[in-house]
Here is the input.
Amino acid sequence: MKAKWWQGSLLYLLVLVALLALAFSFFPVNKGPKEVDLNTFIESAKTGLIDTIQQDGTTIIGVKNEKPVVRASFVGSTKELIDSLKDAGINLGDNGIKFDVKTGGIDWGSLLLSFLPLLLFGALLLFLFRSARGANTQAFNFGKSRARLVSGDKPSVTFADVAGVDEAKGELQEVVEFLKTPQKFLVLGARIPRGMLLVGPPGCGKTLIAKATAGEAGVPFFSISGSEFVEMFVGVGASRVRDLFDQAKRSAPCIVFVDEIDAVGRHRGAGLGGGHDEREQTLNQILVEMDGFDSNTNVIVLAATNRPDILDPALLRPGRFDRHIVIDQPDIEGRKAILAVHAKGKPLAKEADLEVIARQTPGFSGADLSNLINEAAILAARRNRKDVGHKELEDSIDRVIAGPEKKGRVITKKEKELIAYHETGHALAAKMLPNADPVHKVSIVARGMMGGWTRFLPTEERHLETYERFKDMMIVSLAGRAAEQVAFGELTTGAQNDLEKVTQIARRMITEFGMSEKLGPRTFGKREELVFLGKEIHEQQNYSDKVAEEIDSEVEHLVKNAYTRALEIITEYKARLKYVAEQLIVKETLDESTFEALLKDPLPSSYLQAAPAS
Ligand code: ADP
Ligand code: ZN
Here is the structure.
């Protein structure tokens, strides 16, 4: 045993010597990133030459893809540095340039380089000893939490800095109150939510609103990103989570924010060959920590994701992330409010009309809008203006669309019309059918892959569905496509989701609920969940091919009937469809009362001819 161990080590040592020789030839001591003056440094940040800025004592280092590329000197505190970067028009944060502070006033870069051989040697020795003893990699302290206590203590942003998400703010107000006066709740024996999930597309302010919640409550804010946990060594993520929560509990009351929780919180055990070990352990540790909170642990965990559908159900159980707060892409009003928030403190010309800008920027996220204002300020400075004019704002729209940051998509005018008619079709049909759920909101603000959406509000909780309800549900789903057909005479891909849903309803009516007259009250097919294939449901055909054909023809029959009925309704209310859809194009979102009112409005005579759209 022993002899073997030394043999192995000798081999390692030889490799090490070779490595060191290499390292020396590649890194002549003191070759650091290029030193430039502050202005050049800022210019490289603006032109995208760097993606991270690190403050390291009196040196600031610009890093691109983890490699330091430039450095400059800056004498002053972190806050002063952040302020001057922001003043210079640099967009810091998740959607801009990352910012990091290194502790100590030592120039680590060059120090590291000069000590690199020694360090390497030491690390390797340690590693050898550790692996020889069969211990894990804890010794490296990889596990120390990288959670940053933002700006040293409490964030200065408040709800006033977050615009256009009033519902979410309302829900988070409760968290603020709990963090401020927990006694008030505990006296009443109330169970305080431990975790809340912020759900929404990127750049719509999830991080911002989490930070603002801490700011409102005046408590520390710890943030970490799920993707950081996906680390090389097994066990590191878990210990990092442990450290993070230890630190948080010591600083309670406080907020822990886990960004991109889907990176670690995917369905466990999905896919062949088991899940990703590291992710799974990290996720387990998060759950263990949250379960370990007792009723007076004053720590609230907020997590953000744009894919709630792929999260492990264990995360969503009571006592964990059992509350969801939706943070949607902003509509016109929201966009106007966000523009106003970011225009604050910038000299805006009198003629600059934020409402007009809001109307021209469908599909823009909060981050895009913040970018837009920033671009406009830069343009104004270039044009030697004293203030930011409307022209600068308009010119910036294209720059943001073309810019690398733009992740969402911008829809054309024609697409917007199509989506509006489609959604209005759903809503109208729901209104006209006795068994459909009432319409809660209609919107053409894109969400994920969907162009628009119509949200229904079931009047009561249902455990039993009826044949009639299924029928109306299918008609409502198909009315979107019917509206496109009636108004424009063309078919689009926008109805794909609807069609899938309809087909599924029809199929289940026949094969699961025995609702087919022809085939009678029985079920067809044996379903089983194949755990090792993830969530996939496998259906076994336990009927003849002839029956399969009959099922298909029954499905077709149900769907065709529903579509015919949808076309009838849409054709009958064609004029009303046009009237409501046109309002939807202007307002982007119609709530229940507005929608109802639009249905009752007397139609202007121009609509009575039911002229086709466009
Ligand atoms: P997410 O975490 O949802 O990806 P962020 O919170 O990081 O988005 O948003 C990025 C930036 O976009 C914020 O720092 C802010 O400047 C701007 N922003 C996004 N949403 C809003 C909003 N609702 N109100 C004001 N600013 C916003
Ligand atoms: Zn639809």
Notes: DSSP finds 21 helices and 16 strands in the chain. The chain has a mean pLDDT of 79. The longest strand covers residues 67-73.
